[in-house]
UniProtKB/TrEMBL annotation:
Topology in membrane: Multi-pass membrane protein
PANTHER family per the UniProt record, alphabetical: K(+)_H(+) ANTIPORTER SUBUNIT KHTT, TRANSPORT PROTEIN YIDE-RELATED
InterPro entries the UniProt entry points to: AAE_transporter (IPR050144), YidE_YbjL (IPR006512)
Source organism (scientific name): Haloterrigena gelatinilytica
Segments of this protein annotated with the region Disordered: 188-207
Localization per Swiss-Prot or TrEMBL: Cell membrane
Record field: transmembrane: 12-28, 58-75, 87-107, 119-142, 154-171, 214-234, 241-262, 282-301, 313-334, 375-396
Pfam families documented for this protein: Asp-Al_Ex
Identification of the protein by name: YidE/YbjL duplication domain-containing protein
The UniProt record lists the keyword Oxidoreductase: no
Main subcellular location of this protein, as a coarse class: membrane
Keywords on record: Cell membrane, Membrane, Transmembrane, Transmembrane helix, Transport
GO CC annotation terms, alphabetical: plasma membrane
Length: 397
């Protein structure tokens, strides 16, 4: 094996090459618009297409580290955010997934009726990047249709990720949003962060309400991820719709929001300096998106050339319709501030990469509170609707 082959085969080199190149791309500006955090994702796609790869375990690890930081930062606002927008977030999860369900039915029956039905159906769970939705559909499908559904999901997943990330990066610039004013609206609408009782209790233990009393707790951070792993693995009984779980994203996020809000579990501190957490969040985010790109880039163009552009179009339509529906109801019907709306839209799209892009574009970690309020409900609707779609659409392979 030559030196070059050894280097290319080094997983750490590949990962951080994608991070370095991607962050460089993200800094480039065109008309005042930057890719920002989407840079490592696109760099990973290119490197993955060229044959470079990293172990699959990197995805779970970097995702858990990133989501834990997001949740711990957003924990201070979770109570006030849910109190202000709780029912709206539940409705948003239902609206966005319902729109995608209706769209997928139309594509299979009319717009792309000459294509393989399971292939187009796969764009439903793929475009909204829902692995539990994939599992629910595969469980309900006959054996002969499962393979094509999984292919449709895989292609749709990449399309959905790219669209929600680009939307979150570009919309504030295209809509000429005053992000400073949006943050002020968030503060006015949601109110002060955390309860006085929690702040007092934390301060008495040496931890200020904003986490400034403790710079960083390795034990607390590890506890959040460990508890999140347990929470994410708990099966949710849903009768004939199966027993989905929240997975890594949902489990770690809920654990981080809950434990971060409490501030302390016995002798273990779970509220930390937000400036430290923000740096951890930025670093792990770049790694996570690079891994996603490397994984998705392998064989993506070959799959499209083999199965046609119809699956790409179906996935793009599903993703864009869901995003548009979320944008209309949050901004124009409910008049939400953009910080809450951005989190809710990514939660309704069930996409952690979109959450990362939203945080990067707004510069507000509080986006995570809206995501956490919407994501669990959108996930449950995806699980149900994946089976409903199988029941509604006649299968033509």
């Amino acid at each position: 094996m030559t030196f070059v082959e050894t280097v290319i085969g080094n997983d750490l080199f590949v990962l951080f090459l994608a991070v370095v190149v991607g962050m460089g791309i993200g800094r480039l500006s065109a008309g005042g618009i930057k890719l920002g955090v989407a840079g490592p994702l696109f760099a990973g796609l290119v490197l993955g297409h060229l044959g470079l790869s990293v172990p699959g375990a990197y995805s779970t690890l970097t995702l858990a580290l990133f989501v834990a930081a997001v949740g711990l930062i957003a924990a201070q606002d979770i109570k006030s955010t849910i109190a202000t927008y709780g029912l709206h977030f539940i409705a948003l999860g239902a609206i966005m997934t319902t729109v995608a369900l209706g769209g997928t039915y139309v594509w299979t029956q009319y717009l792309f009726s000459d294509a393989s039905t399971p292939l187009i159906m796969g764009s439903f769970s793929g475009a909204l990047t829902s692995s539990p939705g994939l599992g629910s559909a595969v469980e309900a499908l006959p054996e002969a249709a499962r393979s094509e559904y999984q292919i449709g999901h895989s292609v749709g997943y990449v399309v959905g990720v790219l669209l929600i990330v680009m939307f979150q990066q570009l919309y504030p610039a295209v809509a000429d949003l005053d992000l400073g004013a949006e943050k002020e609206r968030f503060a006015d609408d949601v109110g002060s962060t955390g309860s006085d009782e929690t702040a007092d209790a934390s301060a008495s233990g040496g931890v200020e309400a904003d986490g400034s009393g403790v710079t960083f707790s390795v034990m607390g951070y590890a506890l959040v991820i460990a508890v999140g792993g347990i929470v994410g693995s708990i099966p949710i009984p849903m009768g004939s719709f199966g027993t989905p779980s929240l997975g890594t994203t949902g489990g770690v996020l809920i654990a981080a929001l809950g434990l971060g809000y409490l501030g302390r579990v016995g002798p273990v501190t779970t509220r930390m300096d937000t400036s430290i957490l923000s740096e951890i969040r930025a670093f792990t985010l770049a790694m996570f998106l690079a891994v996603v790109g490397l994984d998705a880039g392998a064989g993506f163009l070959e799959t499209i050339s083999q199965y046609g552009v119809q699956i790409v179009a179906a996935a793009a339509l599903n993703s864009l319709l869901a995003i548009a529906a979320g944008l209309v109801v949050t901004r124009f019907v409910w008049k939400m501030d953009w910080i809450s709306a951005a989190g809710g839209i990514t939660g309704g799209h069930t996409d952690t990469k979109g959450l990362a892009a939203a945080i990067d574009a707004t510069g507000a970690d509080e986006v995570g509170a809206g995501y956490g309020g919407t994501y669990p409900f959108a996930l449950l609707f995806m699980v149900i609707y994946a089976k409903v779609l199988v029941m509604l659409v006649p299968l033509v392979v």
